[in-house]
Design goal:
The complex is a heterotrimer. By secondary structure, chain A is of the alpha/beta class. Chain A has helices at residues 17-31, 55-59, 71-83, 102-109, 112-115, 145-149, 162-174, 224-235, 255-265, 280-292, 316-319, 323-333, and strands at 3-4, 9-10, 12-16, 35-39, 64-66, 87-91, 125-130, 155-158, 179-184, 191-195, 208-211, 216-220, 242-246, 249-251, 268-275, 301-305. Chain A folds into two domains: 3-195, Rossmann fold (3-Layer(aba) Sandwich), CATH 3.40.50; 208-333, Rossmann fold (3-Layer(aba) Sandwich). In chain A, the strands form four sheets. Chain A has a seven-stranded mixed beta sheet, with helices on both faces. By secondary structure, chain B is of the alpha+beta class. Among the domains of chain B are: 1-80, RNA polymerase II/Efflux pump adaptor protein, barrel-sandwich hybrid domain (OB fold (Dihydrolipoamide Acetyltransferase, E2P)); 245-464, Chloramphenicol acetyltransferase-like domain (Chloramphenicol Acetyltransferase). The longest helix of chain B has 16 residues, at 352-367. Chain C is built from 13 helices and seven strands. Chain C is an alpha/beta fold. Classes of the chains: A alpha/beta, B alpha+beta, C alpha/beta. The interface between A and C is large, with 48 and 47 residues. Chain C: Pfam families: E1_dh. Chain C: This is Pyruvate dehydrogenase E1 component alpha subunit. Chain C: Keywords: Oxidoreductase, Pyruvate, Thiamine pyrophosphate. Chain C: Residues 48-318 form the Dehydrogenase E1 component domain.
Chain lengths: 336, 465, 365
């Protein structure tokens, strides 16, 4: 939407993250009639988080499809639609419900291009609201990203703010490979300025230094980016200058930005909601240690969930990394 | 030409099979895919079709014989010429070769038949048995650690360009961290030796700092760490780091936890000085430097045996005083890096010549800057020789973890009363500081008195040993 | 289990048949076939050549040239019959045994062998012959076919998708989900189930209490059972189902009642769970014999024709063998190709590192 002032037309507007995705979806659908949206409750209801609000009304039931309650079916039929030349954007209603679709995602979506020796492309986007901190019941607060980063053939990205959400969803739709698109549901209502006509935007798989600093590098993605920024602000009182990087893309990974930062600061802490054990931080720690070995003043530390299933909501604040847990890890990197 | 058919894996997990019945014999004409033999696997009989056409020249296994997969079982003359037909060129849907130059032969081109090294399983060709030897390599393997401190990485002193950050929060400090390149064990070594890595030039690959670099820095005379004052400056600043910082921390820890009491004793050490001269002549002491400090040390060790409580420490956490029945004798040494207190382990068990050698070694090592962290830990009692600086006495501060420290001043000629006459004698002042929580005035005094007595008359040390 | 899903020699009721095992034409109230003698001879040729390719592949596996092969022996009629019902615009989604359908779509048989030889995981372009890649995960392709059909709907094209799967697959969640999707979207898709009575060693009654074709009514679309060994009936029934799909009448489930004469794959030993009598009974219903008998009895073909077909089959077998043996192994660097459509820096890095690593070894002589 544009705001016209006396002399200039500005395309900068304040949007929530959910609305930014909505706008991005809308733009993608306007630009390419092959783009479809499909998922449970995405049409008439506009999505349980209203992310697809208004789209069925404007683009019709043929392009915004309310599907049966069948996640495997959503992905499987999306594969078929893609084979027919469409660009389906699937919604999995909650992170914890992606599991029935795992087979179609891992054995079909990820592998079909190789199976065809390059003849087939499957430009399917799978949108997954993820993460906790919303006081929900079981299966609504998961962080399943590593199942997908570990599956060759998929691309995995996570937006953390409205401006990125707006551009990244469009880039994901335009990508000819299958993309798992994680949306931090607890940040759906965060607002920020979005320039809907911006042209010099970061590539889909680039990381961004969202806060500069010299003492330690924090790596985060999705919901934890905001937490890390808050921690970095609090750390000023300790006299610590923390650099925060929003990874944005987990596979592929922007190692150049990460390594440049860690070589400069000499210390690194990874923060994610998913359990630390076998979490994405493990890949980052190993890779950074190998590439920045001589620059490291301390080992790469990881802050994340415990080796337990996600707890009931009354306990989740103790499970989720918060400002104090992040800064505790930062303190620990300085004890080496 | 002669073609041999090796017993194949027929996909039933077999490693061997029994020949049940031959359907052909030598001399028979066989067609392609004609059943030539029945083999029995674990549970079923399988017919094998012949892969060649021609005349059977030999059956290489007998009925009833058990044969391993991969063993030739039949030979057929297919009537073709000896030369092998050349491989057909790849069809269009194969992968083009990589652009590498030279005779690179990546991988093992497995040919049509699975090699006999495969262990058959239910689905597929089966498990290949592992290699037992390495493949020969042409070039030395890449160095461990791969690419050094980072491809294209230069120790960066400036923050990344602002263009990368859309709305950067300004960094609270403008100070920029100096990047040092060193792997973790080297960093630890530097820390233990009190070496500041930012002042060390790295000689390792890519400018990395090596162990040797750290050792060299530790033993080199300290480059004056001063920030040179501008001419006419009223102040000068010297950074607090390294040994000085460590020493300061230790002193503060000691001074403000143990209540110090210092007692003084002036001693006529003329006979000690004479004894030192005499000892120097003895062959046993040829290797070592003998000085009055040696006899001070010996006197202290003897006195410790007489007053064990002096050689103890206060364990607040356990609520106990720990009396040590060994003496790790610390000797304060002035080194280019600052004051160090290495100790001689189990000094109480050393003979006098051994003690002399230990003292010599200790001071030489310390002055060369090669004292190891282990040498400086675990001390139980310390001697500090302030006399070398030309002063009479001081009030020494306890080494943390110890209960007593003996300061020894300079030896000089002073008037002394001997048999009612005032005569010049070699006189030295001793000062004993002790932890008053453990050691009361009486104990401290008796100890100090004993040390003094042995220095006044070395024979007493012999008598009390 | 009181219901006997039946493996006896009598054809169960409600089974569309137009040609008996003895080669006699019979009528059916709902289905008929109008074929010229040339077309029938053509079907015979299809059946014989497809069987020959299949037998050659089994031999090649027994000789160690293929890691595994899934034989279609006994199911030729179901595949040729349904395959010949397809138009160019239709799209076929096979499992991993539809070598007969591939034949109908003009896919070079040697292309199928690559997968079983381990040279690729498939390797052909589905759009070239409208024949999708083989799918090894049981039943997955049914959803792909339904999605494809949903795409056809959106294109407004006159085409249909047909998807093949076995009796065992009907137990998979994805297959049942595909029935749901196809029915509620009215998708132009034909579900062709080759009920060959066995899912490896599991007999039909492990998968269902009722005849499979009746499943469809539970989902709200027509189901029909056809004699899977009768190429005329399979052709007729599939034509109708495809026509219905193309004309917007939605999905049909066809259960082709047939028998897996061979093993599940060459790694399987059916003697461990099947009795010989059963096999013998089904031999009497051979799909090729009945067409031969029909041609012969009706003087639509002579011995010269049959000999010519046999000779053609023999030549085809040799050609397939020759080209199989000539199939080159892929280059090790092929591992890194075709994983992504767009550039992937980490994969490129791995590829370079691996190439460098390989270059450190002396050449194999």
């Amino acid at each position: 939407m544009t705001v016209t002032t006396a002399r200039t037309v500005t395309t900068v507007t304040t949007l929530t993250l959910a609305r930014a995705i909505n706008e991005g979806l809308r733009k993608a659908m306007e630009e390419n009639p092959k783009v479809l949206i499909m998922g449970e409750d995405v049409g008439k209801l506009g999505g349980v988080f209203r992310v697809t609000d208004g789209l069925q009304k404007d683009f019709g039931e043929s392009r915004v499809i309310d599907t049966p309650l069948a996640e495997s079916g959503i992905i499987g039929t999306a594969v078929g639609l893609a084979l027919r030349g469409y660009r389906p954007v699937c919604e999995i209603q909650f992170d914890g419900f992606v599991f029935p679709a795992m087979d179609q995602i891992v054995t079909q979506l990820a592998k079909m291009r190789l199976r065809s020796l390059g003849a087939i492309k499957l430009p399917v986007v799978v949108r997954v609201p993820c993460g906790g901190g919303i006081g929900a019941v079981e299966h609504h607060s998961e962080s399943p990203e590593v199942y997908f980063t570990h599956t060759a053939g998929l691309r995995v990205v996570a937006c953390a703010n409205p401006a990125d959400a707006y551009t990244m969803i469009q880039q994901a739709i335009a990508c000819d490979d299958p993309v798992i698109f994680f949306e931090p549901k607890r940040r759906y209502w965060d607002k920020a300025e979005v320039d809907t006509a911006a042209t010099d935007v970061l590539p889909l798989h680039a990381a961004r230094v969202v806060r500069q600093g010299s003492d330690v590098t924090l790596l985060a993605y999705g919901p934890m980016v905001k937490t890390c920024l808050e921690a970095a602000t609090a750390a000023e009182e300790d006299g610590r200058a923390i650099e925060v990087i929003d990874l944005r893309s987990l596979n592929p990974l922007d190692t150049e930005t990460i390594f440049e930062s860690v070589r400069r600061t000499g210390r690194c802490v990874v923060v994610h909601e998913a359990p630390v054990y076998s979490g994405f931080g493990a890949e980052l720690a190993a890779r950074i240690t190998e590439a920045c070995f001589y620059h490291l003043e301390a080992p790469v530390l990881r802050v994340g969930g415990f080796s337990t299933p996600y707890p009931p909501s009354r306990l989740e604040e103790h499970y989720l990394p918060d400002l104090d847990r992040v800064l505790d890890a930062v303190d620990r990197t300085f004890t080496y | 030409m002669r073609r041999e058919f090796k017993l194949p894996d027929v996909g039933e997990g077999l490693t061997e099979a029994e020949i049940v019945r031959w359907h052909v014999k030598p001399g028979d004409q066989v067609r392609l895919n004609q059943t030539i033999v029945e083999i029995e696997t674990a549970k079923a009989v399988v017919e094998l079709p012949c892969p060649f056409e021609g005349v059977v020249t030999a059956l290489m296994a007998e009925e009833g014989q058990s044969v391993d997969v991969g063993t030739p079982i039949i030979a057929v003359d297919d009537g073709a010429a000896e030369a092998e037909p050349s491989r057909a060129t790849p069809v269009e849907d194969t992968v083009p070769k990589p652009p590498a130059e030279g005779a690179v032969e990546p991988g093992v081109h497995g040919g049509p038949a699975p090699k006999q090294e495969r262990q058959p399983v239910l689905v597929g060709y089966g498990v290949k048995t592992g290699a037992t030897k390495r493949r020969p390599r042409r070039a030395p393997a890449p160095p461990p650690g791969g690419h050094g401190p980072g491809r294209g990485a230069v120790p960066v002193q400036a923050p990344p360009p602002a263009a990368q950050v859309p709305a950067p929060a300004p960094a609270p400090r403008t100070a920029v961290r100096v990047v040092t390149l060193a792997k973790p064990p080297v960093r630890k070594l530097a820390k233990d030796l009190g070496v500041d890595l930012t002042t060390v030039k790295g000689t390792g690959p890519g400018g990395t700092i090596t162990r040797d670099d750290v050792h060299a820095a530790a033993s080199a005379p300290a480059a004056a760490p001063r920030v040179s004052a501008a001419p006419g400056a009223r102040e000068e600043r010297v950074p607090i780091k390294g040994v000085r910082r460590a020493t300061a921390q230790a002193m503060v820890a000691s001074a403000f936890t143990a209540p110090h009491v210092t007692e003084f004793l002036q001693v006529d050490v003329t006979r000690t000085v004479e004894a030192v001269r005499a000892l120097r002549e003895l062959p046993d002491y040829a290797e070592a430097k003998v000085s009055p400090l040696l006899l001070v040390a010996k006197a202290l060790l003897v006195a410790v045996r007489r007053h064990p409580m002096i050689n103890s420490s206060w364990d607040e956490a356990a609520g106990e005083i720990v009396i040590k029945h060994y003496v790790n004798l610390g000797i304060a040494v002035a080194t280019p890096r600052g004051l160090l207190v290495p100790n001689i382990k189990d000094a109480h068990a050393l003979t006098l010549p051994e003690l002399a050698r230990a003292l010599t070694a200790l001071t030489e090592t310390a002055r060369a800057g090669r004292t190891q962290p282990a040498d400086m830990s675990g001390g139980t009692i310390t001697i500090t020789n302030v006399g070398v600086f030309g002063v009479d006495v001081g009030t020494p501060i306890l080494n943390p973890g110890e209960a007593a420290i003996l300061a020894v001043g300079q030896i000089r000629d002073m008037p002394w009363v001997v048999d009612g006459q005032v005569v010049p004698r070699k006189v030295c002042t001793l000062a004993l500081s002790f932890d008053h929580r453990i050691i009361d005035g009486e104990l401290g005094s008796l100890f100090l008195r004993d040390v003094g007595a042995m220095l006044e008359d070395p024979l007493r040390a012999l008598a009390w040993s | 289990m009181t219901f006997d899903a039946s493996r006896d020699a009598q054809a169960p009721p409600e089974l569309v048949q137009l040609l008996t095992p003895e080669g006699e034409r019979v009528d059916h109230p709902d289905y008929d076939i109008d074929l010229t003698p040339e077309e029938i001879r053509g079907l015979y040729r299809d059946l014989v050549l497809v069987r020959r390719i299949d037998l050659e592949a089994v031999s090649l596996q027994r000789q160690g040239e293929l890691g595994i092969w899934a034989s279609l022996l006994g199911q030729e009629a179901a595949q040729i019959g349904s395959g010949r019902a397809l138009t160019d615009a239709d799209m076929a989604f096979p499992t991993y045994r539809e070598h007969g359908v591939a034949w109908c779509r003009d896919v070079d048989p040697v292309k199928l062998l690559g997968l079983f030889r381990g040279v690729s995981h498939g390797g052909w372009d589905p759009t070239e012959h409208n024949f999708h890649l083989y799918t090894i995960v049981i039943g997955s392709q049914t959803l792909h076919a339904v999605g494809y059909a949903m795409g056809i709907q959106r294109d407004g094209a006159e085409a249909a998708a047909i998807v093949y799967f076995g009796d065992g697959a009907t137990s998979q969640g994805d297959v049942n989900e595909s029935f749901i999707w196809a029915s509620v979207t009215n998708a132009p898709v034909v579900f062709f189930c080759q009920n060959n009575q066995w899912a490896i060693s599991e007999p039909l009654e492990k998968q269902t209490r009722i005849p499979l074709y009746r499943r469809a009514s539970g989902f709200g679309f027509p189901g029909i059972r056809v004699d899977g060994n009768d190429v005329f009936a399979c052709l007729a029934v599939t034509r109708k189902a495809l026509a219905d799909a193309r004309s917007g009448q939605g999905p049909t489930l066809i259960e082709a009642y047939t028998y897996r004469m061979g093993a599940h794959t060459t790694s399987d030993d059916p003697t461990r769970y099947r009795v010989a009598e059963e096999l013998e009974a089904w031999k009497l219903k051979d799909p090729i014999e009945r067409v031969k008998a029909y041609l012969f009895k009706n003087q639509l073909a002579d011995q010269a024709f049959f000999d010519a077909i046999d000779a053609e089959a023999e030549a085809l077998g040799r050609d397939v063998r020759k080209r199989c043996l000539e199939m080159p192994d892929p280059d090790p660097m092929a591992i890194f190709q075709h994983v992504y459509a767009e550039r992937h820096p980490l994969l490129e890095e791995e590829r370079e590192q691996f190439a460098a690593y390989l270059a450190t070894f002396e050449s194999e002589a």
